[in-house]
Write a structure and sequence with these properties.
2 copies of one chain form a homodimer. Chain A contains no helices and 11 strands. With 116 residues, chain A is mainly β.
């Protein structure tokens, strides 16, 4: 099947784990059924300039971000580092992460959460 | 951790399931260990104009393509349809798919294979 439209696009204004501003999430799979129970998120997400995902830990699952465009500051389990298009961030179960759009353009990324 | 470079980028010249030309695959996760045994591919792939992924079936796993840019013709388990940026194709276990770059630019997509 082919999913065309902006199905399941959600704007989190107050739920982005304590971050600033708006996080826009387009779910690409209607998890968990479409992920065969193997994970709980496969999404194209974005942060506008100055917006952020607040620091949070992962328990029982790990999350990968694949940066598609824009520039950000990534908190890699406590270590701050810059990220840009082409970078892959991996947060294993038990680790935490956060991300802030430090650039002037929208920060786009793919997010994948798989169970441990 | 953050994976910066073009790690594990592979060009398949004769292995793209009987398709035409070159398929470029950048593995974002070094599966299956980094996928916690839940799948076997999470990659940023691309097809140059005129190049294709030949038709093939999936057994024991399903594959999702998320089209990032370019235009293509997608064989959705026997039904031909056009795809472009923003489209999500879902091929469940037991189904088959193929894709041809019918545009003038590189067709970029994210590929995710999860076990059934």
């Amino acid at each position: 099947m082919v999913r065309r439209s902006e199905e399941k696009t959600v704007e989190y204004k107050d739920k982005n784990w304590g971050g600033e501003g708006i996080t826009t999430i387009r779910s690409l799979l209607n998890s968990p059924e479409e992920m065969y129970g193997k994970g709980r998120a496969f999404a194209h997400s974005s942060l506008e300039p100055g917006c952020s995902i607040g620091f949070h830990y992962h328990k029982g699952d790990g999350e990968v971000y694949y940066i598609l465009g824009g520039r950000g500051e990534f908190n890699d389990n406590g270590t701050i580092t810059n990220v840009q298009a082409g970078d892959v961030t991996i947060t294993h179960p038990g680790q935490g992460h956060a991300m802030l759009n430090t650039g002037g353009e929208t920060l786009h990324y793919i997010a994948l959460i798989l169970y441990e």
